[in-house]
Amino acid sequence: MSSTASAPRVLATALLTASLTLFVGCKQETQTFPVPASGTVEVEPLKATKMELPPLFRDIERRTFQFFWDTTNEQNGLTPDRYPSRPFASIASVGFALTAYPIGIENGWVSRNQAVDRTLLTLKFFRDLPSGPQRTGKGAYNGFYYHFLDMQTGARYNSWVELSSVDTALLMMGVLFAQSYYDRDDAREKEIREIADTLYKRVDWNWLQKNAPLVSMGWFPESGFIKHDWTGYNEAMLLYVLALGSPTHPVSPDAWTVWTRTYNDTWGVYQGEEFLAFGPLFGHQYSHVWIDFRGIQDEYMRERGIDYFENSRRAAYAQRAYAIANPMKWEDYGPEVWGLTASDGPQQTLQDYRGEQRQFRHYSARGAGLRENFDDGTIAPTAAIASLPFAPEIVIPTTVELHERYGEFLYSSYGFLDSFNPSFQYDIPLKTGRLVPNQGWVASDYIGIDQGPILAMISNYRNDFVWNVMKRNPYIRSGLERAGFKGGWLEPAKPEAGKEAAAPATPKPQTQAEKDAATARALGEAESRVGRGDSSQTPPPQAK
């Protein structure tokens, strides 16, 4: 059902489930709540059910933190794209590493002094990295950094490596996180804040706007600007928040309007969920690592009656439903084995599977949705685990099942290896990973941009840690506000007790069309929850 009403309709009832159990799929009772045919129905954004985490999650956190602490180059702060193969550094991995270090402090895994040393070393290295338009010997240009850098020198790794706008954005999220976290009146922490400010202000977003107001995906010294621009909906939400919040090279507010212009192409119903779709789950996770989207909405989400957090929740449920349906008949897919994102895979090859030719890939984006679909039977643990804040009631059982069923070969020193494929049992040369007898293919590497969301999102689920730190950053707030986000934590603090509050503004009367749209959204919300057996929210209040 559409979330908006094109003509007046009488919507009599909405069904909401009255119980929720840990293992989704048990028999559920339903209760009927009347929804008025007219008037305003205020639908609060759906909040995930808070559940206690099993001890396994603490072990995952510690091991995943150690990935960043142990594999990062102690001489320059560069974090490898992957380990143990460790071919080059990834600037996005560095962004996740800078976010990981304070998580380590808060959990007592490293001292604050150790993390300050490592963070300051990293920021100084990026500040002093040679910059310029030359094809070799440089690591940056106009404030942007090359996607992959030499682990020792920090120079562009190879001629196929682009100056990347979105990977620079992921790096800058870590930089600004460090700026907000290290807030003590200490010379070294003050220096962290100052260098972070310098790095962020250097990024010349306008330079990459060859098709303003959009931002290009990047630049090559050999061929110039990448022709493709970032248009929504995907992980580049965070890029535009950063570009809008820049005090030195900001993009204009209409960048967000144009970014969202393509949203309707991927808004629809998939696997029983109505949401803004993007096939791989990383597109629903990366921006949420640092930004708490609960209760804040841009114009598009205000019209849809939800927020981006709820949208990601629906995306997780849709992927699980896809795995249960398992239209391609891959091995082991089901209610507790699911999760498609960008990840390693066995090999670029065509093989016979169940009597037909199937394509398999090595590293690739994998997903299920209205677009950006590809599925070759490869499951990535990060896809489910990094969805923990959105849907703990389905993520917790899945994480436990992945560990219990596959842990012997999938879970090791730094937590879950990147991915596995129970359907791939072909004796051919592999791009990466190995075959486990009778179990299929399993990755041999950990990948930084998959490890980072696991650690940060478990932390956010426990106590909103990364989110709360970033709420203090004025650049993030400015970027969100210039994009049109309102509500929730972006609203001014309520006056203290005893102080007179300003008289509320008289609300603008709603038109009949607006009333019908609000009522339609209420039913759409209810139907979506019923479809997945979710009763974590009370029924919408009666309109007055």
UniProtKB/TrEMBL annotation:
Chain residue ranges for the region called Disordered: 491-544
Domain annotation Glycoamylase-like: ranges: 227-474
Organism of provenance: Lysobacter silvisoli
Biased composition (Low complexity): 500-512
Annotated Basic and acidic residues bias: 513-532
Signal sequence, renumbered to the chain: none
Pfam families: Glycoamylase
UniProt superkingdom: Bacteria
Protein name: Glycoamylase-like domain-containing protein
InterPro entries named in the record: Glycoamylase-like_cons_dom, UCP028431
